[in-house]
Amino acid sequence: MGIIKATNLEKHYPSPDNSAETFAAVNKINLSIRQKEIFGLLGPNGAGKTTTLEMLEGLTSIDKGNVFINEIDVTKQPYEVKKIIGVQLQFNEYFDRLNLSELLILFASLYATSIDPESLLAKVNLEDKIKALPNDLSGGQKQRFSIACALVNNPKILFLDEPTTGLDPQAKRNLWNLAKSLNEEGMTIVLTTHNMEEAEYLCDRIAIMDQGSIIAQDTPQQLILDYAPEPPEIPMQGNIEDVFLALTGHGLRD
Ligand code: ADP
Questions:
Q1: Would the CB of 51 count as within 6 Å of ligand 1?
Q2: What is the CATH number of the domain that holds 66?
């Protein structure tokens, strides 16, 4: 059994065209995510990715179907589930008078646990920002700090919603390395992304969603064999991102 198991999951919202009707934002999807895998949820805007993630996390109510996380029913025991998951949200607002160390201690106290802010910040390469305020951080630093916040309860499963959107290539690759190292330590990671290179590089398996349904689900290699087996017409040595990184370096700028 997967560490995350969703069966016939459904979520309906009022139809934008006619509020008397509803439509299935998530339409009977099934997922089985294995322990220690990095699992990617891809799909165009409006496909139902965020709604799916929020139901897995217990942040949105489930209309039909069920979700078990580590064999715990998300609907029946939401607080037990919250103890073992970490959720990094797309947009975070923090109390802007508290520094990073104080914020992490505050978040840890919500889980009735204590943490060492310095080692947690070191994990996300922010150890030198321990006294900084959130508003003083760059985009990449904010993303890494939001991951540190999601790690305060030492979760088994980490959910990342578009973790690298808006980051420069250095910060993006730094975040990829962070995700890989957390995964190597044993963490299961579920992420959404619009960056196909990111999905291919990070994910052990990918589910592609469209209009509320999962239309394909497999390893990146198998998906390519099944749906895009032809080589590109013009053979490519690398891509422009590799050129950018070769010219401007892989080091973080912030
Ligand atoms: P994605 O994350 O793939 O972009 P979402 O899960 O955010 O997709 O949205 C799926 C569909 O559900 C979209 O059509 C969106 O407009 C709709 N939707 C999402 N949240 C709500 C809500 N709270 N109320 C009404 N409709 C919503």
A1: yes
A2: 3.40.50.300
Ligand 1 site, residue 45, Cβ cutoff 6 A: yes
Domain assignment of residue 224, given as a range: 2-84+155-248
Residues sharing a CB contact under 8 Å with residue 192, sequence separation 6 or more, in sequence order: 40, 41, 42, 49, 50, 53, 160, 161, 162
Does 161 share its domain with 74?
Answer: yes
44 lines ligand 1 (CB under 6 A): no
Q: Tell me how far the alpha carbon of residue 42 lies from the centroid of ligand 1, in angstroms.
A: 14
pLDDT in tens, 188-203: 999 999 998 999 999 9
The owner of tokens 């109510």 is 61
Regarding the beta carbon of 101 and ligand 1, being less than 6 Å apart is answered no
Residues 60 and 116 occupy one common structural domain: no
The answer to whether residue 36 sits within a structural domain is yes
pTM beyond 0.90: the answer is yes
Other C-beta atoms within 10 Å of 52: how many?
Answer: 27
Q: How far is the CA of 18 from the centre of ligand 1 (A)?
A: 15
